[in-house]
Specification:
169 residues; single chain; alpha+beta
Length: 169
């Protein structure tokens, strides 16, 4: 749940910035990657308000020590639409790791802000996410190994996640 909260809040922060500078954000698409699974799923939200409700329900704010360590998910912003100048056909999307838009209504500085700042902040989280790996030879260990084990053997990684959590909670 730690990485869930961090990655969702980073996306929310930059979507809010985009909405304040460009127009109403809708049709938000995020990818969701589970720690010990291959592939990813998608999560779609009608608007920022729906995303906020999702965050509060599935990754609520809590003291770091009280967070659930079992299944950790990483969310990454993939695309969204912006209502601006009377049209909702202003689409911003991730293409080959870079945010882009074909809309002339969207200011390129806003898109560049996503490419620079959102991607940098998310890459810190991805690094922490990728460093926490469970031993594959123990079946179903996420069901019975608690946070104490993870903090004992991955202390530096947990400390980094704690720093990010405090920054983006």
């Amino acid at each position: 749940m730690i990485v869930d909260r961090i990655s969702l809040n980073i996306a929310l922060k930059y979507l809010n910035q985009f909405e304040h500078s460009e127009g109403i954000v809708s049709n938000v698409l995020l990818s969701k990657k589970e720690l010990n699974k291959h592939g990813s799923k998608s999560a779609k939200f009608d608007n920022i308000s729906v995303l906020k409700v999702f965050i509060e329900k599935y990754a609520p704010l809590a003291a770091f020590e009280e967070l659930d360590c079992s299944v950790i998910n990483l969310y990454e912003l993939m695309s969204f639409s912006v209502y601006k100048n009377g049209t909702a056909n202003n689409y911003v999307y991730l293409s080959d790791g870079v945010f882009t838009t074909k809309s002339l209504n969207i200011n390129q500085i806003s898109v560049e802000n996503l490419n620079r700042n959102y991607k940098i902040n998310l890459s810190e989280t991805i690094s922490g996410f990728n460093n926490i790996r469970l031993n594959e030879y123990i079946l179903n260990q996420e069901e019975y190994i608690d946070c104490g084990y993870i903090q004992t053997y991955f202390k530096e990684d947990i400390d980094k996640l704690k720093e990010l959590y405090n920054k983006y909670k």
